[in-house]
UniProtKB/TrEMBL annotation:
Entry keyword Membrane: no
Transmembrane regions: none
The keyword Chaperone is annotated on this UniProt entry: no
Family assignment from sequence similarity: Belongs to the ABC transporter superfamily.
GO molecular function, one term: ATP binding
Keywords noted in UniProt: ATP-binding, Nucleotide-binding, Transport
The protein's name in its UniProt record: ABC transporter ATP-binding protein
Amino acid sequence: MITTRDLTKRFGRTVAVDGVDLHVREGDRYGLLGPNGSGKTTLVRMLLGLVFATRGEIEVLGQPVPKRVREVLPSIGAMVEGPGAYPNLSGRTNLALFDAAGPGGSRRDRRKRVDEALERVGLAGIDRRPVRAYSLGMRQRLGLAGALLRTPRLLILDEPTNGLDPRGIREIRDLLAELNGEGATVFLSSHLLAEVDALCTRVGVMDRGRLVVQDELDDLRTPTGRVTVGTPTPERALALLDGRVENHQGQFLTVRHDDPGTLNAELVAAGVTVTALAVERRTLEQVVLDATTTSADRVEAGR
Ligand SMILES: Nc1ncnc2c1ncn2[C@@H]1O[C@H](COP(=O)(O)OP(=O)(O)OP(=O)(O)O)[C@@H](O)[C@H]1O
């Protein structure tokens, strides 16, 4: 769906995007993570032909970008850096104008399409208020409605939940999962780990212009070599596993062990009731921390 090779963008002496090989496959829910300034927005803009690359190649929906970008844009729903809207017009009028810029049938069809898009993003009840009176969250939803007008095969969204409250974030996440279930590939950038963790199946991590991680989320969450055991008799388990328990809290023990099966057998054979058993895995946060350098605004003490 999206492939880049050695994609690079320089702004003067700044290398905003540095040799990125991106692979987004059909059906993915791909989350591009990275701190502010790591190059996400520049990368997203290049995918849409809004910024020209200094070096490298881009293919979106099988076509080279920017050369053939006009052919693929009708199949893409995009929202990049704060939805642009005419502030003095209502949300509905803005969307109607946006819709009018594309192909698409009778007046009735167009109105229906606008209504459906507003409904999907939770703005069905909007009145005639101008967009300038909208909250950031409402603007964000309006931008998303614009991206959904033409049942896109591919959604490219830069920080889609920016400015939304927790409930709004949840709603947009559910909506994106639903659209993905209906066949749309979702590619989004975010600086929020939890958001990507909750929604995405595939993750890329940017660090100072470079793509330092790209993998399935499940494959990134490798086991840590520890198993969490729940038991109503933790003392007995502690005595049995002497020296292998790293942490003990109430009825839960964290045990250094590679194989939950043999651990369980050992506990049961010794008469310990096991009520829970879980392999501990690396969190996405750990993956990101391991892959990235210290944050750009941190100043280390010199020696
Ligand atoms: N038009 C531009 N001119 C000069 N430098 C730019 C321009 N656009 C981006 N940069 C620089 O490129 C780097 C990457 O910026 P970019 O906006 O792509 O990062 P980001 O990860 O999207 O961050 P944010 O979340 O803050 O948008 C930054 O150092 C930024 O200052």
